[in-house]
């Protein structure tokens, strides 16, 4: 794999698999986007596999995403240079020989669970890291609704918000389980690169929307909440409710975060359930309800980012509910510290 033109910003980890697109969004039409401050183009090769290249022609400053896919390669829409899946220029229209060094960066890609994951860091490290496993995203036994947004807020701000569900009743009280108001202490498990939190709530009635979908009325359900910081690219929440008869209904909240530039992030979110599957009315209800919820959350995160941008970080008062978010912050800072020497070396080599 060839290297990108510029060094990564030290503001976000680059040695990480990021979900840059849903599989259905990547086809024979080049898809241009930004990630980690870099221009990236996605398309499908002749064999159907997803390809990720630097979105800038080696000849002139022109995006390859403005070109076309020809015979499994990508042709620049300005000069006609054609690049293969490895980023090597294989054809130049004005001469028979390809100039030496005519290539663009190519990035490792994995496609799993209906997502295209791209590694934008040191290519040799890609095989050492696992792509998060999110099987419910592409399982017919589950039904899901979701959306995508570009958010004027940093990726770490988003993760810290996902790590604290006690904020939900203040952002969207109508969808929050009543048990959150008296949330028990967290059990938190930390590894070198992940954070797992767990809470078990006493039996209580479900939120009205969920009780209606389950036909549960005012029956009390035990609730288990688990949250997972899998990487800077993925946060997952699991909400399982179990009735007196032992029947369990499961929800999965998937948050896929990609830093675009400092203070700017891409969020793909999806809410999946294993109940009321095949119910179009349930899909419509949940899309409207959770679409509105995420809109409110993202507005709140953009407001918080504005405060940070204007006034800078200040002293913080933390409470017990912040423990998972603080652990996430520690892991990300450790990742940045580990990557910094490589970033600095790469930058010096190109001066």
TrEMBL record:
Alphabetical keyword list: 2Fe-2S, Iron, Iron-sulfur, Metal-binding, Oxidoreductase
Gene3D superfamilies (UniProt xref): Naphthalene 1,2-dioxygenase Alpha Subunit, Chain A, domain 1, Rieske [2Fe-2S] iron-sulphur domain
Keyword Metal-binding applies: yes
InterPro entries tied to this protein: Cholesterol_7-desaturase, Rieske_2Fe-2S, Rieske_2Fe-2S_sf, VanA_C_cat
Keyword Oxidoreductase listed: yes
Residue intervals of the Rieske domain: 17-118
Entry protein name: Rieske 2Fe-2S domain-containing protein
């Amino acid at each position: 794999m060839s290297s990108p033109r510029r060094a990564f910003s030290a503001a976000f980890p680059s040695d990480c698999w990021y979900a840059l697109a849903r599989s259905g969004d990547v086809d024979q039409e080049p898809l241009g986007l930004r990630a980690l401050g870099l221009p990236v183009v996605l398309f499908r090769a002749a064999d159907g596999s997803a390809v990720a290249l630097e979105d800038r022609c080696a000849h002139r400053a022109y995006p390859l995403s403005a070109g076309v896919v020809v015979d499994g390669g990508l042709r620049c829409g300005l000069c006609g240079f054609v690049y293969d899946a490895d980023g090597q220029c294989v054809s130049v229209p004005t001469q028979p020989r390809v100039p030496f060094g005519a290539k663009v960066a190519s990035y490792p890609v994995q496609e799993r669970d209906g997502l295209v994951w791209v590694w934008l860091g040191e290519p040799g490290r890609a095989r050492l890291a696992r792509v998060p496993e999110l099987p419910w995203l592409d399982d017919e036994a589950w039904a899901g609704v979701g959306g995508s947004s570009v958010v004027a807020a940093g990726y770490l701000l988003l993760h810290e918000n996902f790590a604290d569900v006690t904020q939900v009743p203040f952002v969207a009280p109508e969808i929050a389980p009543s048990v959150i108001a008296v949330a028990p202490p967290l059990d938190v498990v930390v590894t070198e690169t992940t954070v797992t939190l767990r809470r078990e709530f006493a039996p209580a009635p479900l939120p009205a929307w969920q009780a209606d979908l389950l036909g549960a009325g005012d029956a009390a359900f035990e609730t288990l909440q688990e949250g997972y910081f899998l990487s800077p690219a993925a946060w997952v929440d699991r909400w399982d409710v179990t009735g007196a008869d032992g029947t369990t209904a499961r929800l999965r909240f998937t948050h896929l975060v990609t830093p675009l530039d400092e203070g700017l992030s891409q969020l793909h979110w999806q809410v999946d359930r294993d109940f009321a599957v095949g119910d179009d009315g349930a899909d419509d209800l949940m899309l409207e309800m959770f679409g509105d919820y995420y809109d409110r959350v993202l507005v709140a995160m953009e407001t918080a980012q504005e405060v940070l941008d204007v006034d800078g970080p200040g002293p913080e008062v933390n409470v017990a509910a912040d423990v998972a978010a603080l652990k996430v912050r520690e892991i990300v800072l450790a990742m940045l510290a580990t990557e910094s020497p490589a970033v600095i070396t790469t930058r010096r080599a190109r001066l």
